[in-house]
Structure formats: structure tokens, C-alpha cells
UniProtKB/TrEMBL annotation:
Keywords: Glycosyltransferase, Transferase. This is Phosphoribosyltransferase. GO terms for molecular function: glycosyltransferase activity. The keyword Signal does not apply. Residues 11-145 form the Phosphoribosyltransferase domain. It comes from the Bacteria.
Amino acid sequence: MTDSTISKRQILSPLQTSQKIRRIAFEIYEHNFEETSIIIAGIAGEGYAFAKRLVAELADISPLHVELIELRFDKHIHFQSPIIFDKDVQVENQVIIIADDVLNTGRTLAFALEPFLKVSMKKVQVAVVVDRSHHKFPIHADYVGYALSTTLTEHVEVVLSRPEEEGVYLK
């Protein structure tokens, strides 16, 4: 065991995490079954890993054509950095689902909305693995894997990109 795993308490096992992601995929399909295609925009890091898992689950359970894009921006600076798509995608008149690992204050998701506000879309939805409910911005998740009450000093880590550590942890 490394020092980083000793100080963590596992909240969701790999199996439980996978079940939450699959349930979110079913909910996305239920709310968008009339669509022929949707776009899932994952926020770089574990949000993008979550988005890739959603795309795989949706391919397994639905006929939807799902386009995956990665949103890259620096979420640690105090002013908004430009948001870069990892590829050229037509977002106009589409359903967009922004995917991230943890919804805490809503700041990152508020920033992630910026490129989609400049075009006409059918709707924008938000999917997260964990909602901590410490919202400072008027952002809510349409799809939540796990709602977790935490203190402001605790840290929630969702691990999806490293199979040997997969799960949700509280530090």
C-alpha cells in the first residue's frame, strides 16, 4: 500500500462505481430516447474517463449515436481560461451532456458551459459520479451516481482511469 491509499477511505468499490455509471447511462437514454445522437463532453481528467465509460455503456444499451469530446481548461486559475475541444464537433442543435467526476461548488461545471452558450442547442445536461452539494454556483446535476454529504475540509476522489485503484474515496 502506498501513502496515498492509506489515508483514503473507500466509499464505492469498483463494482459499485460501475453500477452507478451504468444506471446513469440508462437514465440518460430514458431522458433522450427520442434523439438519434447526443454529445458527451467530459471534463479533462477523471471527468473524461467517466464520459468514456458512459459512451461505452450507452453503446451497450441503446441505439444512440454518441459523440465523445474532451473539454480542456485550467480549472485552478481564478479567471476562466479558454476551453478547448479535443476535436472539431458540430454542437449546434444537439443534446450535450457535460460529464465530470465530482460536483462540489459547481465552479468547474459553470466554466464548462461557456462554449455551449454561444450556439443554439436542444438542451444541456450534467452528469456526475458524486455530488457533494456544496454548491456556490446555480449548477445542479441531472444525473448523479452518488450524493455524498461531506465537510468542507474533506476531499472526494473518483478514480476511473487507473483500474487497480478504481472507486470513490474520501480523504
